[in-house]
Design brief:
Strand order of the largest sheet: 2-1-3-12-4
CATH superfamily of the largest domain: Periplasmic binding protein-like II
Structural class: alpha/beta
Largest sheet: 5 strands, mixed
Strand content: 15-25%
Order of helices and strands: HHEHEHEHEEEEHHEHEHEEEH
CATH class of the largest domain: Alpha Beta
Number of domains: 2
Number of strands: 12
CATH architecture of the largest domain: 3-Layer(aba) Sandwich
């Protein structure tokens, strides 16, 4: 009898230990740490965000401001958040595509070919502007520069946008080479501005005698100061270039891809 009385408190202590141990395990050991909770929440949030990658052709702040109606429209149509993520240049964009940072990218035709080859992104849409599926590149100078033809560019300074840009480098370079003008040997200095409005502004402010950009980057650059457009003259245009495509990462949900296509086509 005494032995039973002695065992009862021991059993109770063991039961209490088991209960407290289980509580501690499930609420402190097995439960995720605060940092894990944050990471899971962040991962869940990122799945609900469509990240659009783009290399800005103009001032980023101005571009974001103009893009707000499009962002709101896409969020409504897709039922998810939409966020723009800008890359400093096309090579940075392609590297981001290799890491699958972007869900949807809007990039130039030359960089699309490279991005498709290196990261597998595939085109789903191509914009139609002013009734055309193509656009051109142009070479501009100031009206008071005394430069009237491509041959007048020899010995002058010149600016392109980006070596991965079709309209800001590849097509105008081919145009110059066909005229027997080699940028590396016939120009006094060559510079890459990184953006199309950078070319327009550098030529306008006489930092460079001439430059290559998409046609007509003057209008988007001087949207609020149209009188400045008249200070710049176009001395040459390239053959047509395919409009830059919208492409998606290869593992993006196919239902979402259809919704994205439908939303853009609905814009008309």
């Amino acid at each position: 009898m005494k032995r039973i009385r002695w065992l009862i408190p021991v059993v109770l202590i063991l039961l209490l230990a088991l209960i407290l141990g289980g509580y501690y395990y499930y609420n402190f050991i097995k439960a995720p740490l605060p940092s894990q909770v944050i990471e899971r929440a962040r991962a869940k949030e990122e799945k609900e965000v469509l990240v659009i990658g783009r290399v800005p052709a103009e001032n980023v702040v101005r571009l974001l401001k103009r893009s707000q109606p499009l962002i709101r429209y896409l969020e409504k149509e897709l039922g998810m958040r939409v966020r723009f993520q800008f890359a400093r240049d096309y090579e940075a964009m392609i590297k981001g595509m290799e890491k699958k940072i972007y869900d949807l990218v809007h990039l130039g035709p030359k960089s699309y070919v490279k991005g498709h080859g290196r990261a597998g992104y595939y085109a789903i849409l191509k914009p139609i502007r002013h009734g055309s599926a193509t656009y051109r590149s142009m070479i501009i100078v100031r009206k008071d520069s005394g430069i009237n033809t491509l041959n007048d560019l020899r010995g002058k300074t010149f600016c392109f946008t980006d070596k991965e840009s079709a309209s800001g480098y590849l097509y105008p370079k081919v145009l110059l080479l066909k005229k027997g003008i080699g940028p590396d040997k016939d120009f006094k200095r060559v510079f890459f501005t990184g953006t199309h409005d950078g070319v327009v502004l550098n030529v306008y402010h006489k930092n460079f005698a001439a430059g290559a950009c998409f046609d007509d980057a003057r209008k988007s650059t001087f949207r609020e100061e149209p009188e400045k457009i008249e200070e710049l003259r176009i001395i040459a245009r390239t053959p047509p270039i395919s409009n830059e495509p919208f492409a998606v990462r290869p593992d993006l949900d196919k239902k979402l891809v259809k919704k994205i296509s439908k939303a853009f086509l609905k814009l008309g």
